[in-house]
Write a structure and sequence with these properties.
This protein has 198 residues and is of the alpha/beta class. The chain has one domain: Rossmann fold (3-Layer(aba) Sandwich), CATH 3.40.50. Helices cover 25% and strands 37% of the residues. It is built from 6 helices and 13 strands. The strands form 2 sheets. Strands 2-1-3-4-13-12-11-8-9 form a 9-stranded mixed sheet. A 4-stranded mixed sheet has the order 6-5-7-10. It is globular, with a radius of gyration of 15 Å. It binds glutamine (GLN). Glutamine (GLN) binds next to helix 4.
Length: 198
Amino acid sequence: MVRVGILALQGDFLEHFEVLRDLGVEAVYVKKPKDLENIDVLIIPGGESTTIGSLIQYAGLAPAITRFAEEGKPILGTCAGAILLAKKVVDRVVGETGQFTLGLMNIAVVRNAFGRQNQSFEAVVSIEGVGEVRVAFIRAPVISEAWPPTKIIGYVNHPALGKVGAAAVQNNLMALTFHPEITGDKKIYEYLITLAKK
Ligand code: GLN
């Protein structure tokens, strides 16, 4: 039985918990390094990436999360979580943010790329290996670049920005710029569970 850990420092952790419960998957909250010892998959939820980043550092979680990734265990970062996995971050308005990230994935992201909170939207995204999912983009970033071994595997078509990167994968690590837990589309979670069983 796969047990999923959800980083529960700030943001959307409860919503992920509820989707997993509905799927009959055991989920637990991760707040400190020891919590990573008994899980097979980690979800880093959406929220506010500088806040979650500060709390990761405060909790001393960065080395443990890095080790978890190096052991080949799946990590899914959604929205702010995707920003935290990225090696490079810029903000649409202020440019270089200089913020802390885990820097585990070879991706560059642009924070708040679609504009303000009220420019949030829902869209259908087609992701290689997952299929079509209806999801919410809330002050979302875009994945502007990925370099080997990392690949962009899903795009969203936006009226103003055109086709921009929304999903990337690097072996056991996955970054999604949107919130699958808001619309409750289960396909992403099912995909994650299969990754954990590999
Ligand atoms: N705009 C947020 C950030 O840059 C991310 C938004 C989200 O996770 N919904 O941290």
